[in-house]
Write a structure and sequence with these properties.
The chain is built from 16 helices and no strands. The radius of gyration is 21 Å and the shape is globular.
């Protein structure tokens, strides 16, 4: 096996990372927050009683943006995959190895999940009849099916739209990275982020009923991904050193201001694809999460990193792929089996049911990572760029 060798760029503005950089566990913790937001949205927020007649109703209203955990996943994916693309794009086996490694990380668990979902259809489990034609799922076209029909499918499979967005990004991004010069990368990325905003505004004007289309199709959601790649470029560029020096002094104010704006946005209770989100919400959320990733990846303030490197949060982040794919399939099945089809989270017994569903999903995620996912990923990493 050929050993991995990073070819040094002749561009003096490029800061090459070490050949085997240490893992930034704070980013795992950030991923743990992202999956916690998604699970909260599906297990807690959607099961709380509607209205604001009680504190439970206010809790539901106050966590109305928990679904944006998916946007945080997008930004983290853009940063991590973007870093791989920038570091290795000039190496001879770059494209082949990139797709191989992505396949070993994504496909085995993905197709195992589809197999279990197919079994649920055969057994006629509740809700499993509301699905798109099954060939859509292995081709990663779920987002197109949702966007073009304007409807969600069965919850365990409806979450696959975001994975389809990422796979479509992975399909195109390596070729753009190979073709672009280092100096052009930030301009291309900024242009794509603005283009996503322009697409959303155009859709609202030309097709006002395309809310789900706006929420799930890659051209309308690519700003979260490309801003993550932009951060990956910045942490590797000497040209951005002055910016990070400035960010090191002002990150608490910027994050606090961003959280305050998110709180104001939450008061509007915007749903996926709403006019508020299309006009400025998606772009602001993508920009805020890119700022968070930049702070964690480069500034690394001790207090913030210490929180993000808490062992349960890091472990949750490392198990997040299984949890994302299976929380709707397994966790929701537990909740419906123990709490009934009309389950409402308004009692201590309801809290216990949700806690058990989360614990069981997390436990199986740990088993999957240790005995199924990680060995396959390690095999894929035997192949060097």
């Amino acid at each position: 096996m050929r050993s991995a060798v990073l070819v040094e760029s002749t561009d003096p503005s490029v800061r090459r990372p070490p050949e085997n950089p240490p893992r930034n566990t704070a980013l795992d913790g950030l991923r743990g927050i992202a999956i916690a937001m998604v699970v909260w949205h599906h297990f807690v927020e959607l099961n709380l009683p509607p209205g604001r007649a009680s504190w439970l109703g206010w809790l539901r209203a106050g966590t109305g943006l928990s679904w944006t955990g998916v946007d945080l996943f997008f930004t983290l994916s853009g940063f991590l995959i973007g870093g791989i693309l920038i570091d290795h794009r000039i190496l001879p086996h770059f494209t082949r190895v990139f797709y191989l490694r992505r396949a070993t990380r994504i496909l085995p668990l993905y197709f195992a999940t589809l197999a279990i979902a197919a079994l649920a259809v055969v057994l006629r489990l509740p809700g499993s009849y509301h699905m798109f034609p099954f060939w859509i799922y292995p081709l990663f076209l779920t987002n197109f099916a949702v966007g073009l029909t304007g409807t969600w499918d069965w919850l365990p499979l409806s979450v696959l739209w975001s994975l389809a967005v990422e796979e479509q990004f992975y399909l195109i991004a390596p070729w753009v990275a190979k073709a672009a010069s280092h100096e052009m990368i930030p301009w291309i990325l900024a242009g794509l982020a603005l283009l996503a905003e322009a697409f959303r505004v155009a859709l609202m004007l030309l097709y006002p009923n395309g809310q789900l289309m706006m929420h799930v199709l890659t051209p309308f959601r690519m700003d979260a991904l490309v801003l993550g790649v932009l951060v990956a470029w910045a942490v590797r560029s000497k040209a951005a050193c002055a910016f990070f020096d400035w960010l090191g002094g002002y990150w608490p104010v910027l994050l606090a201001g961003g959280i305050a704006i998110l709180g104001g946005l939450d008061l509007l209770q915007p749903r996926e694809g709403s006019r508020v989100m299309g006009a400025f919400g998606y772009l602001f959320i993508a920009s805020f999460f890119a700022l968070v990733v930049a702070v964690v990846a480069r500034v690394r303030p001790a207090s913030l990193v210490r929180c993000l490197e808490a062992r349960p949060l890091v472990h949750l982040g490392r198990c997040s792929y299984f949890i994302y794919l299976w929380h709707g399939l397994l966790g929701q099945a537990v909740i419906r089996a123990l709490g009934g089809a009309e389950f409402t989270l308004n009692s201590l017994s309801g809290v216990a049911i949700v806690a058990f569903a989360v614990a069981l999903t997390w436990l199986l995620a740990a088993v999957s990572w240790r005995w199924f996912e990680r060995p396959i990923v390690d095999w894929g990493h035997r192949y060097a760029y």
